[in-house]
Design goal:
Layout lengths: L5 E2 L2 E2 L2 E6 L6 E5 L4 E4 L5 H10 L7 E5 L5 H4 L2 H8 L3 E4 H10 L7 E4 L4 E4 L2 E7 L8 E6 L4 E5 L7 H6 L5 E5 L4 H5 L5 H8 L7 H13 L4 E5 L8 H13 L10 E4 L9 E2 L1
Parallel strand pairs: 5-6, 6-7, 7-8, 12-13, 13-14, 14-15
Antiparallel strand pairs: 1-2, 3-4, 3-16, 4-5, 9-10, 10-11, 11-12
Helix pairs in contact: 8-9
Length: 273
C-alpha cells in the first residue's frame, strides 16, 4: 500500500516518471489515494515493477491518460488492460487510431475533447491541445485542489492553449527533446530531421527552456526535463539550456526553482508537487 505524503494535515500531490525518452514514456501521478498513469509506452511488467518500487500496486491504478498514439506512449496498453482492467482516457481521434492497431480495447476508452476537464476520484484532470504529427494529441494538468502538475511533451510548438493551461502549475514536466546541432549533425535521415524540427515535431532545448521560463513566471517551482532524445541530446546540454532560460528571467536555480532530468529507462522516484 502506498504511503501518502502528509504536509500540514493535507495529502500532497506527487509525481514520478517511470520512463522518459524516444524508446518509451510513462508517468505516475498520485495524491496518495488515487493513482493515475500518463501514457504506457513501456511493458506492463516494467510499469508494475516501477510502481511497486514507489509503493503502489498495479491494481491501484485508477486510469491511464494517453497523450497520443505513437508506440513509445502506448506499447504497454494491451497487457496493462488485460492484467489490470484499467480505463483509458484520451481524445476520440487518438482512441480510434489505437483501436486500429490494438484489438480488444474499444470498451476501455473514455473520450474527451481537447480543453475539457474531468475528475478521476479526487484528482481534477485538465487537457489542452499540443502540436504533433498524429491524430489529436494533448497534454495534461492534474490537480488535487491545492496544487497542480502539468505535462507538456511531444509538441513542435507550445500552443496558446498549452501556455494558458499550465499557468499556476507548481511542477512542469516539459519537453527538451533535441539539441539542434546534434540533430543536424546526427545519423537521422533528412526527412526525419525535418519532421523533428517542424511545428508538428518536438521541442528543442531552447524551446523547452522558454516553456520552462514561462511556467516559472506563472508559479512553477519544479521543472522536469523530459523526452530527451538518446541520439540528438545529452542530459547536461539540456540542463544547461534550462538553466540559461531560467536565469534570463531572474530565477535562481536551486533556490527559486529546482531542475532535474527525467531518466530515460528507470524510475525518477517521487517528486512532491
Amino acid at each position: 500500500m502506498a504511503v501518502p505524503f502528509f504536509v500540514g494535515g493535507l495529502v500532497m500531490l506527487r509525481v514520478a516518471t517511470l520512463a522518459s525518452g524516444s524508446s518509451g514514456n510513462c508517468t505516475v501521478i498520485s495524491d496518495g489515494k488515487v493513482h493515475i498513469l500518463v501514457d504506457a509506452g513501456i511493458s506492463a511488467r516494467r510499469i508494475v515493477r516501477g510502481l511497486r518500487d514507489l509503493g503502489v500496486e498495479g491494481k491501484q491504478i485508477a486510469g491511464v491518460l494517453i497523450t497520443h498514439e505513437h508506440s513509445d506512449h502506448i506499447s504497454g496498453l494491451p497487457m496493462l488492460c488485460k492484467q489490470l482492467g484499467v480505463e483509458l482516457y484520451t481524445t476520440e481521434g487518438t482512441a480510434r487510431q489505437i483501436c486500429y492497431r490494438m484489438a480488444g480495447l474499444e470498451d476501455r476508452f473514455r473520450v474527451f475533447d481537447p480543453g475539457e476537464r474531468f475528475a478521476i476520484g479526487d484528482l481534477v484532470i485538465g487537457t489542452f491541445p499540443t502540436s504533433h504529427d498524429c491524430a489529436c494529441p494533448v497534454g495534461y494538468t492534474v490537480s488535487d485542489g491545492h496544487r497542480m502538475a502539468a505535462l507538456c511533451t511531444d509538441t513542435g510548438r507550445v500552443t496558446a492553449q498549452a501556455a494558458q493551461a499550465i499557468r499556476g502549475a507548481r511542477l512542469l514536466i516539459g519537453e527538451f527533446n533535441y539539441d539542434p546541432d546534434l540533430l543536424r549533425g546526427g545519423p537521422y535521415p533528412a526527412f526525419l530531421k525535418e519532421r523533428i524540427l517542424g511545428e508538428q515535431g518536438h521541442l528543442s532545448n531552447e524551446m523547452g527552456g522558454k516553456l520552462a521560463a514561462w511556467s516559472v513566471n506563472k508559479g512553477a517551482r519544479q521543472v522536469v526535463l523530459a523526452h530527451l532524445s538518446k541520439e540528438n541530446n545529452q542530459p547536461e546540454i539540456a540542463r544547461q539550456a534550462a538553466h540559461r532560460a531560467l536565469e534570463s528571467i531572474g530565477a535562481r536555480v536551486g533556490k527559486d526553482v529546482s531542475v532535474c532530468v527525467a531518466p530515460r529507462d528507470e524510475c525518477s522516484g517521487w517528486l512532491e508537487v
